[in-house]
Write a structure and sequence with these properties.
This protein has a single domain, classed as 3-Layer(aba) Sandwich (Rossmann fold). Strand 3, helix 4 and strand 4 form a beta-alpha-beta unit. Helix 1 crosses helix 6. The relative contact order is 0.20. By secondary structure, the chain is an alpha/beta fold. A five-stranded parallel β-sheet has the order 2-1-3-4-5, with helices on both faces. The radius of gyration is 16 Å and the shape is globular. Helix content is about 40%, strand content about 15%.
Length: about 190
């Protein structure tokens, strides 16, 4: 069993990555392999909707030769996918948006490579925009046939400067609850 955590922040070591690491530690503590992927510093181009992944049907993206292509097998082989992003102008970052568009397009073009896997968002903002961004990521999970666990509240936290989200007591408790539920659900599905 494996859960992949993808951080869509363009900054390394920020609030989104810190909360993602917290969730992955809890999941790993439940005996599930947990791996973190940072999009920061990676070149991930937006989907061109070229349709080549529909023609080839080999689980690869043929429209680009960038840093996402070698990540696709790891993502599709995992049992769960956590997507962590800060809120930029009321939505997920451009990095995360390009990631979900391409991963989702290839998955759907190849018979649903993400179907029946566990998916969960982690969203951080300084003041607002978290709920829309949670919905944005949940739409990605749902259209790909993924299964979403709940938590003790929306999987959000407040924080601006690095480390501030870990000071959001309710946010941290919520991410811990989410991580426990992701681990529980992955185990149930794999039985």
């Amino acid at each position: 069993m494996e859960v992949i955590g993808v951080c869509g922040s363009p900054r390394k070591g920020g609030n989104s990555e810190q909360l993602l690491e917290l969730a992955l530690r809890i999941i790993a503590g439940e005996g599930i392999r947990a791996e973190k992927i940072l999009l920061a510093g990676k070149q991930i181009s937006p989907c061109r909707a070229c349709g080549k992944c529909r023609e080839e049907r080999d689980g690869r993206c043929h429209g680009h030769d960038d840093d996402l292509v070698p990540l696709l097998p790891t993502i599709y082989d995992a049992d769960g996918l956590l997507l962590a992003t800060p809120v930029y102008f009321g939505a997920a970052t451009a990095e995360m948006t390009a990631f979900v568009d391409r991963v989702g397009y290839v998955s759907r073009a190849n018979g649903g490579l993400l179907s029946r896997k566990v998916g969960a968002p982690i969203v951080v903002a300084r003041r607002a925009g978290q709920n829309f961004t949670v919905a944005q990521l949940n739409y990605f999970f749902l259209i790909n046939g993924m299964i979403l666990p709940g938590a003790s509240y929306w999987p959000i936290a407040f924080g601006g400067a690095k480390g501030e989200a870990l000071e959001d007591e309710e946010g941290v408790e919520t991410i811990e609850s989410l991580a426990r539920n992701v681990a529980w659900l992955v185990k149930k599905i794999q039985k």
